[in-house]
């Protein structure tokens, strides 16, 4: 198990950015890797920050992950093979279907709450 902790900062311009903490302060660079579809992601950048034991991590979004469907990039400690984090991209028809289903579920729940509230108001009046 890894002592490293990964916290997301943001995702922008095709780059996922995070902060890695819990690294040894000896200056040894942590072995952090990213994989998409069990293949290594090229261009991962790890820069030591001003805070001891803290590193800034940048993982470029693989071009092939920008497509219809659900795509997940795993970030892991290369020394222990322990998962540190991940990020997921959802695009295309699957995203529309998922959002429509969520909205329908919310509408159904709201309708149910309205009926219960109206019944409650009638019974207490």
List the helices and strands and how they pair.
Layout: E1 5-12, E2 15-21, E3 32-36, E4 39-40, E5 45-48, E6 55-60, E7 69-77, E8 83-91, H1 93-124
Antiparallel strand pairs: 1-2, 2-6, 3-4, 3-7, 5-6, 7-8
In brief:
This protein has 125 residues and is α+β, with helices and mostly antiparallel strands. The chain has one helix at residues 93-124; strands spanning 5-12, 15-21, 32-36, 39-40, 45-48, 55-60, 69-77, 83-91.
Task: Describe it.
The protein has 125 residues and is of the alpha+beta class. It has two domains: 5-90, Rab geranylgeranyltransferase alpha-subunit, insert domain (Immunoglobulin-like); 92-125. The protein is 26% helix and 40% strand. The chain contains one helix and eight strands. It has one helix spanning 93-124, and strands spanning 5-12, 15-21, 32-36, 39-40, 45-48, 55-60, 69-77, 83-91. The chain has a four-stranded antiparallel β-sheet with strand order 1-2-6-5, with no helix packed on it. Strands 4-3-7-8 form a four-stranded antiparallel β-sheet, covered by helices on one side. The radius of gyration is 22 Å and the shape is elongated. The chain starts with a strand and ends with a helix.
- Residue-averaged pLDDT: 88
- CATH topology of the largest domain: the name is Immunoglobulin-like
**Number of DSSP helices?**
1
Distance between the termini: 61 Å
Question: What gross morphology would you assign?
Answer: elongated
Largest sheet: 4 strands, antiparallel
Structural class: alpha+beta
Percent of residues in beta strands?
35-45%
Provide the CATH superfamily of the largest domain.
Answer: Rab geranylgeranyltransferase alpha-subunit, insert domain
What order do the strands of the largest sheet run in, or round the barrel if closed?
A: 1-2-6-5
Return the CATH class of the largest domain: Mainly Beta
Radius of gyration: 22 Å
- String of helices and strands: EEEEEEEEH
Helix content: 25-40%
Give the uncertain stretches in residue-range form.
none
CATH architecture of the largest domain: Sandwich
């Amino acid at each position: 198990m890894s002592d490293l902790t990964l916290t997301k900062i943001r995702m922008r311009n095709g780059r996922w950015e995070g902060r890695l903490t819990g690294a040894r302060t000896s200056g040894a660079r942590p072995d952090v890797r990213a994989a998409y579809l069990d293949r290594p992601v090229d261009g991962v950048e790890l820069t030591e920050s001003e805070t001891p034991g803290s590193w800034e991590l940048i993982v470029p979004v693989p071009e092939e992950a920008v497509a219809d469907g659900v795509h997940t990039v795993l970030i892991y400690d290369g020394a222990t093979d322990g998962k540190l984090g991940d990020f997921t991209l959802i695009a295309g028809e699957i995203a529309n279907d998922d959002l429509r289903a969520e909205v329908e579920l919310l509408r159904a729940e709201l309708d149910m709450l309205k009926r219960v509230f109206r019944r409650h108001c009638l019974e207490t009046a």
